[in-house]
From TrEMBL:
Keywords: Transferase. GO terms for molecular function: transferase activity. It comes from Cryomorpha ignava. SUPFAM superfamilies: Nucleotide-diphospho-sugar transferases. This is Glycosyltransferase family 2 protein. The keyword Transferase applies.
């Protein structure tokens, strides 16, 4: 049976990169590419639309808020997706690797697949030291609290629509990725990781590019892991 695969891309001031991301997504694999313009002051919307994406707006600032808006759009479709892929708009991931990302779901081996930058090849400087440390801390905490085998909180991920409904995502900012993983563990949703390549993003990071963003993200991630423990 052919599976409907839809992609959600949260985007805040990513006019430099979002067109490249949309362009590199394997069109033969996906049905809809939904870019959620999260209050951009540049021409993110125009660039994404001209690259062929469906663009919707989310005025409430936050990574999770943008992802939730994308999901509410997919929920409004007459035919829901079977699989949703989340991808950042900064061109640090390789959208061509989507085939490998969804393979464990299509093969019936998992309902959640994380693209792990820790297992894959990272371009030098692609991840800041605080990102590497934050990932290590979060995955180590999940290992001890939940027996998890995650190596990364990578944003490039695929999940079944069924699992998303069960997980019932709530987080509106930095805790989005870890909430999905922790709830999947608690609900005994099958998961897998695949190694993915990772390159230096285009433009400046809204999180790791600032001290405040780094501290807030780290705090929220740890809090989320402990909250569901």
């Amino acid at each position: 049976m052919h599976k409907h695969i839809d992609v959600v891309i949260p985007a805040f001031n990513e006019s430099e990169a979002v067109g490249l991301v949309v362009r590199d997504i394997p069109k033969e694999l996906v049905r809809n590419i939904v870019v959620v313009d999260n209050n951009s002051s540049d021409n993110t919307r125009a660039v994404a639309e001209s690259a062929g994406a469906i663009v919707i707006a989310e005025g409430k600032q936050g990574y999770g808020a943008a992802c939730l808006k994308g999901l509410s759009y997919l929920a409004s479709l007459a035919e829901k997706p079977d699989i949703v892929v989340f991808l950042d708009a900064d061109y640090s991931d390789y959208p061509q690797e989507m085939f490998q990302l969804v393979a464990p779901i299509l093969d019936g081996e998992a309902e959640l697949v994380i693209g792990s930058r820790s297992l894959g090849n990272r371009e030098k400087g692609a991840m800041m030291p605080q990102q590497v440390f934050g990932n290590w801390l979060a995955t180590t905490m999940m290992k001890y609290l939940y027996g998890a085998k995650f190596t990364d909180l990578g944003p490039f991920r695929a999940i079944t629509w069924r699992a998303l409904q069960e997980i019932n995502m709530k987080d509106q900012d930095y805790g989005w990725t870890v909430e999905m993983q922790v709830k999947a563990l608690k609900l005994d949703i099958s998961y897998a990781e695949i190694p993915v390549k990772y390159r230096k993003r285009k433009g400046v990071s809204k999180i790791t590019g600032t001290i405040k963003g780094t501290v807030m993200a780290g705090y929220k991630i740890i809090l989320t892991i402990l909250r569901y423990a």
